[in-house]
Structures are given as structure tokens and as C-alpha cells.
Amino acid sequence: MWVQRYMSLINLFHKVTHRLVRKWQAMVGVVTIGPRAIILNQDNQVLLVKHTYQSHWYLPGGGLKKGESAKAALLRELKEEVGLTVLVEPHLFCIYHHTYLGVNDYPIIYIVKNFHITPNVSSPEIERVNWFSYDNLPDKISPGTKRRLDEYFTNLAPAERW
User: Do 73 and 60 contact (CB within 8 A), yes or no?
Assistant: First the structure.
């Protein structure tokens, strides 16, 4: 019982902190860049993650650290979040524009098909990791993630806005 309360407090802390940081970023005019990946296995399933502080499923990825390129950030985030090492250069899919809580954000989506994954890697940010076929995506997938997967799997031209 205390573990559930503890986890609830941690989730609340992450949500509140995230919103406060975004509000501060909007006030000072910070622009964010976030590389993510559509990772496909040999069965053409996509890898999705569920964060501890969000209720939806997302493409894995994250933000840049100071002095880091988008591709380097993607490779680092995939290793940290899901234990994935990219074996062949990721392919750039599209760069989008998104405004989130007043912050201009630029999600960069890569395609990753050749990789090695270390099972059971644990990250404090990630609650669950799972493979999904396009025709059986989870109900609680984020709308932006769903649009990106629709573009990829149905060969739609990528939209400019997230």
C-alpha cells in the first residue's frame, strides 16, 4: 500500500515539475528539440514506451543535452530508456513544429530498423515498454504518436505541425 502512495507522489511531483519547467521556458522564450524514433522489429511492430509521469504511450526519445546533436541525443535516450543500441544509421523521417504549454518544440522523428536491444533495462522514467503492430496499437496512445505512425504506415506525407 505504501509503495502505491509513494509512486503516486513521485508521479505527481514529475507532472508538477514538468509543467513548471515548461511555464518558465515559455516565459523566457526557450525553444526545445526532441528526437524520437519509430523503431520497427522484424515483424514490423513498433516499440512504444509509457512514462511514469504520463498516461499515454509514446515513441521513445527525449531532449538534447547541452552541446549534443539530435542524433546523439536519440542514441543516448534509446540506450537509457529501453536498452537499445542502434546498429545502422537512423533515417530521418521528419521534423515537426509543436507548441506545448507555450513552448515552441521541434520533435525530430527518425526511423530505426537495425538495432540490438538488451532486455530488462530499467529507467526511472519508463513504466512500461512494449511492441505493438500498427493494427493493434494501445487505446491510450498519444494523439501525436498516432499521427506519426499513421503517416509512416499508410505512406501519408508528413504534416508540418505535430
Answer: no
